[in-house]
Here is the input.
Amino acid sequence: MAINHLAPEQTEQFADNIVGFARALRAAGMPVGPGAVIDAMSALQVIDIGNRADVFTTLEAIFVKRHEHALIFKQAFNLFFRASEEWKHMLDSVPLPDEAKKKPQAGSRRVQEAMSQPRMTETPQHQEQDLRLSVSDREILQKKDFAQMSAAEIAEALRAVERMRLPQAELLTRRQRPDARGLRLDLRRTLRASLRTGGDIVDIHRLGRIEKPAPIVALLDISGSMSEYTRLFLHFLHAVGDARKRVSVFLFGTRLTNVTRALRQRDPDEALASCSASVEDWAGGTRISASLHNFNKLWARRVLSQGAIVLLISDGLEREADSKLAFEMDRLHRSCRRLIWLNPLLRFGGFEAKAQGIKMMLPHVDEFRPVHNLSSIQELITTLSRPLPPHHRNLIRSAA
Amino acid sequence: MTSAATTSGADTSAVLPASVDAMLELLTSRGYLAERSLATVTYLSLRMGRPLFLEGEAGVGKTEIAKVLSAALGRKLIRLQCYEGLDVSSAVYEWNSAAQMIAIRMAEAAGDTDRDQLSSDIFADRYMIKRPLLQALEPDVAGPPVLLIDELDRADEAFEAYLLEILSDFQVTIPEFGTVKAPHPPIVIITSNRTREIHDALKRRCLYHWVDYPAAERELAIVKSRVPGISAKLSQQVVRFVQALRNQDFYKSPGVAETIDWATALSELDARSLTPQVVGDTLGALLKYQDDITRMQGDTLQKVLKEATSEN
Here is the structure.
């Protein structure tokens, strides 16, 4: 029985149910547009709606566009169209689920700050003196450890971080574009130009390779010991992601969470809020080995395949350091183009890799850098924009 | 879509299946034992004229379904294998510049000086090299072809964006030539191994389906149909072994293609049943990473083997 064989009022009820179902899916966090609802209705014209399994597959093919959503869909489907003995519930009217809880308004913190009495921005009495001070203040700020900053200093640092932009560390691709100094002859354009002169080739057009920034994948430790740095790094990664498209960000504590999508939102506050909403183990313990294992297994092939640079931001304080950690680090190292470990612990002058975990991880990184103040982040940016070392494996896959 | 098949009138073209069951039958008749869900989305994509986007691990039969469809429906199969840097000149069309040069010289020699005439002459159909996407838009006597866009995740974002246009309107604009539009849209199957996320905009234009590893029963049927000489006992053990392997924490679990390979290998070796020796020798047909093979030595192998060979 297809949907167009139903009585008109039944068809209407049916359509209402599909619309309601789409709303339920949306409330559950799935991106379901109105186009999908129309698609669903037209798909149900051609299949037998008496067969629950077929209806399930049909709606799934239309509403689910990412494998991760399949589970949510299944639960929602079973809840909405009760899995009971009779499929005729499909025609019953179904109560709509409550609207998803209102999430806290983005930017509320900024608004609050703006409304509250500003402590640091009191009007100075001696303008002249203050200017001098603020310059030296800024110098101090550059060197000051994030962990020792006051709230206002952190706010200042955040603004500085947001202004930072990665220069485009370029990677040659196989794509070509018109380029007067390119090496290849652009026959097509040369020929077209020659037609203007009646077939005489006057200008020779050339093609050069297109360069594009290498993708960046950041793995950020959000365990308790890193908590003073987490927010700043997230701000930094948000700013980086704003400037270039291919940046993936993963957070890990006891488990691994992909927050790339959450960080894509334009407003940094909203982005950070939805980041923290998607993470369950904020400021908890660390399981670096297990998190890396998950990353290697589930994500490495999906995000590292285009010659990505990996930033591992962690203090490396892992309690359960065993041979697995070295194995996972090795695997990570072998599947990316460059592995840069950023460790805030390096700020201490006489830092020695004594912790077991750090010792195991160190042999597998290409670079080991401090990252605890603004100037070290600036240095990182310089590093990332340097040309890549020519000897490295997997080098410029795409330019081969 | 239906009208396309029925009006083409060619004998080679089979009529599109009229129900999910008919679709299932059609696939089975060509040796593709599909889950009902896969048959459902395939049927829908034919009926609705929508591209079918299949995602899943390597070796679960995503590409195969396009081949089977083209054979079963008697349609031409046009395959576009994606790779990084795939561009319009290798996916859609290219001008045969050498031939155009000669044409210009010939025109010169003949004293033709009309530039407009010359340019319309050399940008004609016969100087165009048609690549898969353009071929797929052309009418075919057997009905609209099956266009397989294989491993789209290997192409870069720029190509994906280009595809967006073709998949929604089934037309291509060539600056020197005009717009080419398909009289009947082709049957499009897109596959991805998820080495990169495909943009939602593209998926939205398609019916999406995640192709999973088959259940034991179905996998057994697949092995039996693909490796005809294999004994019932061995095929059962093979499937149990592979299914047990997929529960292990491997970097790359074996797909159906690997199961078939392995069963064929064992059958070639005249193995009667699985022994540690024969499994150890042929493990390379199943596992493709050295780390995974190393992990399979010793205890794990014994455990999985015991699981596979017990209760016969």
About this structure: The first helix of chain A runs from residue 8 to 27. Chain A touches chain B through 49 residues (CB under 8 Å). Residues 93-133, 390-400 of chain A have pLDDT under 50 and may be disordered. The first strand of chain A starts at residue 170 and ends at 178.
